[in-house]
Design brief:
six-stranded mixed sheet; binds adenosine-5'-triphosphate; binds magnesium ion; single chain; alpha/beta
Length: 236
Amino acid sequence: MTPSIGLRLDDLTHAYAGRNVLDRLNLDVLPGQFVSFIGASGTGKSTLLRLIARLEKPISGTVSPLPHGTSRDVNVRVMFQEDRLLPWWTALQNVQLGLRGRETDARRLLEAVGLAGRESLWPSQLSGGQKQRVALARALIHKPDWLLLDEPFGALDALTRVTAQQLLEDMLRESPRTVLLVTHDVEEALVLSDRVVVLGGGRVLKDLQVDLPRPRHRDNARLVAWKQELLDGLLH
Ligand SMILES: Nc1ncnc2c1ncn2[C@@H]1O[C@H](COP(=O)(O)OP(=O)(O)OP(=O)(O)O)[C@@H](O)[C@H]1O
Ligand SMILES: [Mg+2]
């Protein structure tokens, strides 16, 4: 298995219309670590993922792989809140998007996300949760070094969301990679991540190490206490 690659944010700064959204942000994410970002709406979480994915260039500062000197190109994939599937392509074709000769891998991944037998359905024939699972399979087929998830389960109902979270956890156990998740769901962050980073004012306000064994139980006393602490922090 190829070793995981982490990342370093070094004085990362970005602004829109002269207003700083990210202000000299510094953060190391270790290879294979799962880090969640939470923070009020408009604090720059999506901007941060776009800069890391190189969809936009920062005003100053850098995003670099860890360990330093990693020579191969870093493969980055982003999954957004909306599935962004192509409506005129089937589930299978969407997973294979831009890849030749990967049908077996695509079928295996669709099976892994619980969609065996639905390969030839169009996105319009799938539920919201099923479409997000196709989008997850499409991100994972590329075996990204950095998997960036921007509120991927935000539009799902509570039950479907828990199932999707478990699925993501299972898939990462089989095939570990460095994951950055943006979410408004504090419990989701605590159940899934090694660290929860709170962003505010363009900086890191809090960096919480979630040192609980997995799988985690939502009623674990420490998890419940952290959830309350984080929610209190977000509200005030
Ligand atoms: N392309 C853009 N042009 C101008 N301003 C932008 C642009 N993209 C984002 N912004 C501004 O930058 C700030 C951060 O936006 P961003 O989308 O990163 O926030 P967010 O933390 O992801 O919010 P949310 O939780 O609501 O998704 C906001 O004030 C937003 O209005
Ligand atoms: Mg956002």
